[in-house]
Amino acid sequence: MELDDNYFMSMALKEAEKAHVCGEVPVGALVVVGERIIARAHNLTQRLNDVTAHAEMQAITAAANFLNGKYLIGCTLYVTLEPCIMCAGALTWSQLDRLVYGSEDPKRGFIQANINLHPKTKITGGVMENEAKALLKNFFEKKRK
Fold first, then answer.
1. Residues with catalytic annotation?
2. Average pLDDT of the residues of the chain
3. Dist. CA 20–CA 135, nearest whole Å
4. Distance, CA of 51 to chain centre
5. What pLDDT does 143 receive?
6. What string of DSSP letters covers 33-79?
7. pLDDT digits over 49-58, tens only?
8. Is-contact 30 77, C-beta < 8 A?
């Protein structure tokens, strides 16, 4: 099995499914160094009663703890939804090498807000976008019933 962007995004989607089961907005994230996953996370805003407990924030904290340092140099963050501006700010400060996201977020994403990440951070969007969108759509359709 090739450990490429699709593989790691499929792992992030599994984290998003965990969030869905818990009644959280289904967003999952993981941090990878080389081909090793060092952090996995999903949204915990409802469970922790904390608006900052986004999947990305949880993954950043877990990865920093794993690395025993505040910078994520050499790391890639895979997240199923384009980060919001809060998460983009944290990603900028973390000096992440690469961000890979699934679905764009035209309402609350950092790109539509014209937020720039760290100048060295490379961004790849649309990885397994259909799967990420379907999970979100399913969640919100059930919420509206």
1. 56
2. 96
3. 8
4. 15
5. 76
6. ETTEEEEEEE--HHHHT-TT--HHHHHHHHHHHHHTSS--TTEEEEE
7. 999 999 999 9
8. yes
Show Cβ contacts of residue 123 under 8 Å, excluding neighbours closer than 6 positions. 98, 99, 100, 101, 117
Provide the residue type at 72 as one letter. Answer: L
Instruction: Name residue 113's amino acid.
Output: A
- What is the C-alpha to C-alpha distance for residues 78 and 40, in angstroms, rounded to an integer? 10
Question: What does DSSP say about strands 98-103 and 122-124: parallel, antiparallel, or unpaired?
Answer: parallel
Place of tokens 């703890």: 65
Q: Give which of 130, 110, 94 is closest to 10, Cα–Cα.
A: 130
pLDDT tens, position by position, 75-88: 999 999 999 999 99
Amino acid letter, 47: R
Q: Which two tokens stand for residue 114?
A: 């014209």
